[in-house]
Structure formats: structure tokens, C-alpha cells
């Protein structure tokens, strides 16, 4: 008992990876950039300190001119004190250099304080999302009010994600505000996606190239070719506007360094110069095609999604497809056998989504009336019309009652009297 209402936590959580991975990726990026900043500044500081120390040692071999050697020696404990420098360091000069170094460190500190919100927001979101997933642990069963509440939040999330993916940012923002799920939606991520996609669709690569620089290491990890393809597009645009020497300089600077991994592309790019934008010859014709910008936009979208562990399909669609696949029968794809109550049969709504889905495995089949969508069984007998088509008794009687005893066959449009229908016997 109680098995039916038992919660399958594992299965529920399996779908939720992107919920955590998006803020995590955001956090990783913020940490990486501040780490890079700190490393750069500290190594610069170490070099400066070491230079200062060796100069100081050259001035006073042995004794040490007090405050300077203390400071310098602190940052440069392993430095050699061979007096090879010809320059002579005055205490004033040393003090000035030290204050420049201190100033740099203060600037670094200020910058780190300024960029702190970059990591506090994803941290806050990760916490909120983990708490939302943790709520599931306290749900006793699928028929409890706690579960309904949790599902309502999940539905809002899934709908907001769908709206964001389709570019309806304002509706998504309203929904997440009304539903109180602002910490559970990634509005900024998708608005950035939208902005860059729109730029690409209006033939501008700058925004996407900047994004590539921001995500260099992540893109390298997923072996993305996006940056090369964007550079190639810029090169193509230069040829299109007949700026050949500029195109060549651009190719030398941005394409040639990646020759090792993109040799075939590079060779084709060079051959484009000989063909020109009006060519009918493939593959150059496709390379010159303006639709290549749309391809770039979709490549950007899919790379960005895989960088953030987001699925290719919106969660709403994949969830619906799971449900539709469970309903889909071999009859569903047949025009003449559509059932009025089957969502998979409806070509205007879910039929399209279900088209490429596998069918469910059914051990028992049942007869469903084409006219009413009701099950045909011993309480609702199958009746055959003179043209050979079978409908349920109840559906025929209802139709006849509305039309003076007349029945119109929905498949052929033929009209019969109810008295002409005969009981069918299935053997
Ligand atoms: Zn169906």
C-alpha cells in the first residue's frame, strides 16, 4: 500500500541538473576572472619587489639602508644580492616606487570589492535552488498538498524557461515575479543569449566574439569552433564588399593561427577569393549565403547551452514528449484513425511534437470510438454502418438524436439512418 503515491526522488532530481549548473558556471567564471586578476597583479608585484631589492642591495652591500630592505626583503626572500645593477637607488626613489606598488595593491583590492557581487548573486541563487530541491525531501507523498505546492513552483519554472527560450522575456519576468521564483529562473542568461542572437541575425559578430573571449576556456573544453566560424564570417563579409587586401590581412591575423585544426576551412576560405559572392559553385555559394549568419546564431545558442549544461530542448517540451510518447500508438499517425480524445492524434497541437517520438509498448489494446473518443466495450457496443466503418453505440445514438435519426460517417461523409447500423461481433 502507498506505493503509488511514493515519491521517486531520484527520477525527479535527474531533470534538475541545469537548475544548479547555471549559477555554478556563473560562479566559476567570476572566480576564474578574479583569480586571473590577483595572479597577474601579484606576479607583477613580486617582480617589482625583487628588482627593488636587488637595486637596494647594490647600493648598500652588507649594511642595508633600513626601511627599504625590510620591505623589499619581505616580498623577495629568495633574491640574490649580487650588485650588478649600475643604477643607484636613492631612498626617496625607493619610497616612491614602494608607494606605487602599494597603490596598485589598493586598486586591486578595490576592484575585487567591486566585482564581489558577481559571485554573491550566483551563490545566493545556488542556495535558493538547493533549498527548493531540498523541499522535495520533506514531501511525504505525491497526493500531499506539499507536493502540489512544489509542482506548482516547478511548473512556473518550466513555463518561465520556455518563455525565455522563445524570446518572450517580459512575460517570463512577469511570471517569475508573480510566482516568486526569481531566484529559480535565469533571466539574465537568456536575455544575453537573445541580445547576441539578434546581433548575429543583423550581421554583427562583435558581441558574439566578445562573448567567446569571456568564455574562452569553457569553449575550449567543449571543443567549440564558434570563434573560428565567426572570424571566417567576418572574412567573408570583407570579400563580399570587395575589400580583398583587408580580407587577406584579416585572414592572416585571425584565421591562419588556427590552420592546424581548420586546414580544409582555411583552404576553402582562400579559394573564395577566386569565386566572388555571386558564384553558383558549391561549397563557395553556401559560404557566401547570408543564411550562414543564422547558422552562427544557432551554433552560439547550442554552445552556450552546453557550456551551462542546459538541454537542447526546453524542459517543457521534453517533459511533454515523455508524456506523449507514453500515449502514442501505431494508430496515431494515421489520418483516418485519429481519436478525438488523444492529444497525440491532434496535428494542430501535440501531434507535431509527437511526430518523431517512439511509440509506447502496449500489451493490451482496446477499441476507441472515432466519433466520441470513448472506449468501445460490453457497455458501449461496436456498431457497423453499411459502409463498413465501426462506431460506438452511444455515439451513434447521440448523433441520431440530434439529426432526426440520421448519422453522418465522419470518415466518408456518407449519411445513413440509425436503423441501418448493425451490431458488430469481434472474433
Ligand atoms: Zn492517438
What is the element layout, followed by pairings?
Layout: H1 9-14, H2 17-59, H3 67-75, H4 91-135, H5 145-165, H6 169-178, H7 187-201, H8 206-214, H9 216-221, H10 226-240, H11 244-255, H12 263-275, H13 284-288, H14 292-307, H15 315-327, H16 350-354, E1 367-368, E2 375-376, E3 382-384, E4 390-392, H17 393-402, E5 406-408, E6 415-417, E7 422-423
Antiparallel strand pairs: 1-2, 3-4, 3-7, 5-6
GO biological process, one term: proteasome-mediated ubiquitin-dependent protein catabolic process
Family: Belongs to the FYV10 family.
Organism: Gonapodya prolifera (strain JEL478) (Monoblepharis prolifera)
- The number of helical segments is 17
Low-confidence stretches: 63-86
Name the helix and strand elements from N-terminus to C-terminus, one letter apiece: HHHHHHHHHHHHHHHHEEEEHEEE
Distance between the termini: 38 Å
